[in-house]
Amino acid sequence: MLLMLATPEARLQQELHRILREKCDAQSVAKLACSFSPSQIVAWLQPFISAHRRQRIEQVLAGRTYTIVPVVEGLANTGNVSAVMRSAEALGYQAFGIIKGSVQKFKTSERTSQGADKWLDLWTWQTATEAAQALKAAGYRLVATTLENAAPIETFDFTVPTALVFGNELAGVSEELLKQADARCVIPLMGFTQSFNISVAAAIALYHAYRDRMARQGRHGDLPPVWQETLKAIFYLRSVRHAGKFLWARLKQENSACP
User: Fold this and answer.
1) What is the span of the domain harbouring residue 43?
2) pLDDT at position 247, please?
C-alpha cells in the first residue's frame, strides 16, 4: 500500500507557504490551508488562466503518478540532475527524489530542466539510509540501477510502487543504498560501451516504466481524486503571475488568520 510522504493538505500548505511567506507565518498559512479548499483556489484563479492552459493542466493531471518515483543520488553535475528532472516531468512522474550525499549545494539548471522542477514535488534527503527508510515506510520498493548482479529492467512490474534510483556519474549507486535496495536492475547494452550517460539511462528507464505500466493496466496516470484536486490548485498557483499577491488580497477579505 502506498502511503505517500505527505498528505494533500500538507502539500498545499507547503505551496501556500512558498507564495505567502512574506505575508504570513507558517502557523497562519496552515490555518489558511485548512480554511480554503483547493477547489476555491482554482475558482479564484481560473479567470486569470486561458482555456487552452486549463485544458493542458487537466491533460497533465490525467497522466500523473506518484507510484513510480525517480531518485538521483549524489549527482555532482547540475545539468545531469536537471536533465533527469526534465525527462521525469515530461513522462508524468510527479515526485522526484534527491539524495544529496556529499553534494550539499543542490541546484538545477533552468536551461536544461526547462522549468520541470516547477511542476514536480521534490523530496530531498541527506543520506541514502534516510531516503531508503522514508521511501520504504511510504510503501515503495527500492530498485537501484546498477551493472553488477542486476536483473534486466524488462523483468520488473512497474505497476508496483517503486523508487527507481540512479547513481553518481562516476561511482554509480552507493554501497550504502545498494545494501538497502530491494532489487537491482540494469538496462541491457548491445554494444562495446559499458554504460549510458546518467541522463540518458534515466530517460530510457523512465520511458520503459511508462510503457510497462501502459501495457499492464492501460494507463499511466493514477492520481486519487484528492491529489488531482490538490495538484490542480498548485498548478494554477504556479501558472498565474503574482498569484501570491492576488491570493493574499482575496484571503484578507474572507479570513482573519493573517493580520
Assistant:
1) 8-60+223-254
2) 78
DSSP character for 154? G
CA–CA distance from 46 to each of 5, 124, 162, 243 (Å)? Answer: 29, 32, 35, 11
Which one-letter DSSP state was computed for residue 93?
A: B
Grid cell, residue 37, equals 479548499
Q: What's the CATH code of the domain at 197?
A: 3.40.1280.10
Running along the chain, 259 residues long, what does each successive block of 10 average in pLDDT? 82 85 68 77 93 97 98 84 93 95 55 69 94 96 94 97 91 93 94 85 97 98 96 94 80 59
Inside any domain, residue 259: no
Q: Could you tell me if 240 and 179 lie in one domain?
A: no
CA separation for the pair 50, 30 (Å, rounded): 29
3 domain residue, yes or no: no
Query: Which residue, among 162, 169, 166, 71, has the nearest Cα to 124 in the 3D structure?
Result: 71
Running DSSP on this structure, what letter comes out for residue 102? T
Give the rounded distance of the alpha carbon of 147 from its chain centre: 25
